[in-house]
Structure formats: structure tokens, C-alpha cells
Amino acid sequence: MKLEKYKNNPILSPNPNNDWESLVTTNPASYYDEERDEVILIYRAAGFDKEHRVNLGIAKSKNGYDFERVSDKPLFEIVDGTWDSGSIEDPRIVKIDDYYFITYAAVNSPPGKYWLNEGNNRDTIKDLPPSAPIALRNNETRTGLAITKDFKTIYRPGYLTDPTLDDRDVILFPRKINNQFILLHRPLKWVGEKYGTENPAIWISKCDDLLENKKLSLLAKSEFDWEYKIGGSAPPIETEFGWFMLYHAVGVDKQYRIGAMLLDLDKPEMVTHRLKNPIMVPEYDYELIGLYNGICFPCGNFVKGDKLFVYYGGADQYVGVATCNFSSLLNELLENPIK
């Protein structure tokens, strides 16, 4: 089955009134607050500045479709001289106890106009000495953590990943399993015979403390002809059948499509079911034409009643939402066990 895209997409578009989000509003994390019956979006935003620095914005909705921005300022500031100083992007959000945990991709130097092949586009940073750490000089991605109770006071305790891995799409499970935190990863450099995958893949880790060094194990790799490299998309959703998980796949045609799988409830390092075909593909202008053409990129999902809501970025520039009957999608997954 395919997710049904909202007829009035995009639900969030660049805002010319704020310089920092005048070109880009995309790749949104989402959280549904049942007590307030309110949806929170944390989205990636950027303006027309030459460096293309990326920030995070916040918006809220009562119906999951019509969103209002909470502030005319970014959620938190870029800090010069840190790994956050270039870009803070592609957030994911879960709530554990009374706190929201936001993971985000951090890049030391802004990417420039990557869609025009201008700027450094993650090339070597020229003003650092050869003796500087390679990951810093090469502008590799690492994943940061922000923790907040109210989206006003925000703690930024540090980074979750080794910068030498160029590790993004790091997603925290919404609860501990066997008293440990569980995270998904996509270390870009872990490819080849040594790692058991020819292309970048989804890995998983367990830890007692989020800032400790983590041991990663391979969870899933590309299997079908529409997949080349794959990565986790949104936080897994707990069901009686296992952890439902969306993932994105970049094909050889550079198009971003969305797949679905189930992980074992108690041993999430085991994939139990996986659909053979994508449940979302780029097809509308706001997905096909933008800064990067042909992208559907979810960072947020939740279930309300029996409806799955998926919030995604289109063409690196817009926000869309798509839905489906969750039970029907789970039933289809259960018909596709891993053999």
C-alpha cells in the first residue's frame, strides 16, 4: 500500500518574513502530545545567505494539518567554534519521562549552495592546519543531542557519535529496552567487506548512557532494486507485533523513497518483516522540484487512533504530511516476514 498525501501539501513552506527560514522549511520531526491534543513539529530551516547555515524552527497544530510557527526565531542558536557552527539539521524527537530528546545532524562548516555545487559542500575546510583532526578538516557529520521540558530551556549536553564515522540519521527509540537506550545509526563510511554491506546501511546500538562510546551492529542494508543506500527515517513506533520503522532509500537514480519494516519487540537488532516495495515515492512538484529534486524524507511519525501520520521533507525545501490506516499497513508487513 501507499501512504496518502494530504491534498493541501505542502503544510509548511519557506517564510519570507524571517531571514533564517526564507528559503527552506523541511525534514520535520514530530511529536503528538495526547494531553494537549497537539502536534509539535521541529523542522530544518535555512535562508538565502551564501553560506547556507541551517537552523531548527518549531511549529504546532491542533489537527495535524494546519500549523502555526511558535516563534520568529530558531529553536536554539548555532554556536560558532563548535560542531554545530555550520548546520543543525534533520531532527528527530522522542519523549522519555517528562523530557523531549532531540537528535540532530551537526556539521562544523555550512554546506554552501550545495544544489548549485557552490560553497564547500562538505569539502575540506581550508583554514585548518593539516595537523587538525581529519573529521574536522573534512567537515564530517556527527549527531548532537538537545533535551528540553518546555522548548524554552534547552540543554545541549554533547554529541552521541564518533565524528570519524560521518554518522547521521541517528534516531533514539522512545523508551529503554532491557534498561538500555537503543539508537539507530547510518555511518556513511562503514561500507565494504569488513562491514558486511556494499552501500551505506542502517546500524543499531545499545548504551547505558547516551554520551558513552557505542558499539554498533548492522541492522539492515539495501535489498531491493529501488534501494542503493538506506537510513532510518523516524522514531520507531511500538506495536504488539514489534517496532514499526520507516526508512528512506536513495536509489541509483538519486530519488528518495520510503520503506517500512518491523523489528523484534525485545530484540530490536532483529528485523522480522520488511515490505518489498516503497510506501511513498516523489510524485508532486513540492517533492520533485526544489533544492534537491526527487525527495521524500520523513523525520517524524505517530499514530492517532488507527491513523498513521508521517511528516516529511519534500525536495529539501518543503514539509508535507501523509497518512494511512495503521492496522492495514501492519497487516501488510506481517504478510512479508524475513525468511
State the helical fraction.
under 10%
Parts with pLDDT < 50 across at least 5 consecutive residues: none
Figure out the total of helices. Answer: 3
Strand content: 35-45%
Quaternary assembly: single chain
Q: What is the chain-wise order of helices and strands? A: EEEEEEEHEEEEEEEEEEEHEEEH
How many whole angstroms does the radius of gyration measure?
Answer: 19 Å
Can you describe what's shown?
With 339 residues, the protein is mostly beta strands.
Give a quick rundown of the structure.
This protein is mainly beta and 339 residues long. It has three helices and 21 strands.
Which characteristics define this entry?
339 residues, mainly beta, five-stranded antiparallel sheet, four-stranded antiparallel sheet, 21 strands, 5% helix, 42% strand, globular
Which helices and strands occur, and which strands form pairs?
Blueprint: E1 4-5, E2 24-33, E3 38-46, E4 54-61, E5 68-69, E6 87-96, E7 99-107, H1 134-137, E8 141-148, E9 154-159, E10 167-172, E11 181-187, E12 202-207, E13 215-220, E14 229-232, E15 237-239, E16 242-250, E17 256-263, E18 271-274, H2 285-288, E19 296-304, E20 307-314, E21 318-325, H3 326-334
